[in-house]
Amino acid sequence: MGAEEFAVVLPRSGIALRGKRSGRPDGVPVLCLHGWLDNCASFDQLAERMPGTVDLLAVDLPGHGLSDPIPSATCHYLDYAACVLELVQDLGWQNFHLIGHSLGGALSSLVAGLHPEKILRLVLLDAIGPLSASPADTVEAMAGYLTTYLSDTAHPVYPSRAKAVKARVQLADILLDTAQTLVERGLREVPGGYSWRHDVRLKRSIPRTFTEDQVRAFLRTITAPTLLVRAERTALVESFYPGRIDSVPDLRTVTVPGGHHVHMENPVPVTNAVLEFLGLG
């Protein structure tokens, strides 16, 4: 299923969002949200295996890929969720399937909890809810984040794309092929070589301001049937995750061999599970 470049300027926030859209305009709406420091290319293999009966949009989240950054100083999870909701409103989607990986899965959890009536079915790829923090941890996280915001910190410059790919591999549990796919859209040419496109504030990740009780409150309001695809080498290792899984009223889990980017590393079983769950197989 061939993809075309997508671009829109959100009328309320003024943020320009870009991504890839495939299928047909009158197809079943499917929105895909990628992970932290990734971009919409994360879903290339999933999109290729989707039937032509869908209208699939994989978007570069604000500050990632080719999209504008969040204008807010703090870049809260809810700032991103608001952009997602404004996007689907601009598209005229009353109801849609929502697929999210990592950060995108955290945002998908929030969106599905904020407006459960909008979500037909929810797919979470090795993610469930945003990262939480104690009150003391929140103070430390926000202090560090605002220090980055107020500094003149710049991205490093790599002499070649290969060096940038190597740096991306070292950042997390990610395969070389996966890193190459993501880096293609995530780099820009600068004097002396290549540097990252993403918002420099994301070097500190999204600041954690939700308590665990607040996260579970969002999860409990989700009404859409939910599929959690866990990687065998999952990132969901903290002790609070079983409680989160129990908080979603209608959730089923499948485990697939691979690491955190399991939908890229092992796309066939992930896609098969997703298609069956969405009723598109």
Concise account of the structure shown:
Keywords: Hydrolase. This protein is an alpha/beta fold and 281 residues long.
What are the salient characteristics of this protein?
single chain, 281 residues, alpha/beta, Rossmann fold, eight-stranded mixed beta sheet, 37% helix, 21% strand
Structural description of this entry:
This protein is α/β, with parallel strands linked by helices and 281 residues long. The chain has a single domain (3-131, 210-278), classed as Rossmann fold, CATH 3.40.50. It has helices at residues 44-49, 77-91, 103-114, 135-150, 161-171, 176-186, 212-220, 241-247, 262-265, 267-278; strands at residues 3-9, 16-23, 28-33, 54-59, 96-101, 119-125, 187-190, 193-196, 226-231, 251-256. It has an 8-stranded mixed beta sheet with strand order 1-2-4-3-5-6-9-10. Strands 7-8 form a two-stranded antiparallel ribbon. Helix 2 crosses helix 3 (103-114). The longest helix has 16 residues, at 135-150. The radius of gyration is 18 Å and the shape is globular. The two termini are 15 Å apart.
Question: Helix and strand layout, with pairings?
Answer:
Blueprint: E1 3-9, E2 16-23, E3 28-33, H1 44-49, E4 54-59, H2 77-91, E5 96-101, H3 103-114, E6 119-125, H4 135-150, H5 161-171, H6 176-186, E7 187-190, E8 193-196, H7 212-220, E9 226-231, H8 241-247, E10 251-256, H9 262-265, H10 267-278
Parallel strand pairs: 3-4, 3-5, 5-6, 6-9, 9-10
Antiparallel strand pairs: 1-2, 2-4, 7-8
Helix pairs in contact: 2-3, 3-7, 5-6, 7-8
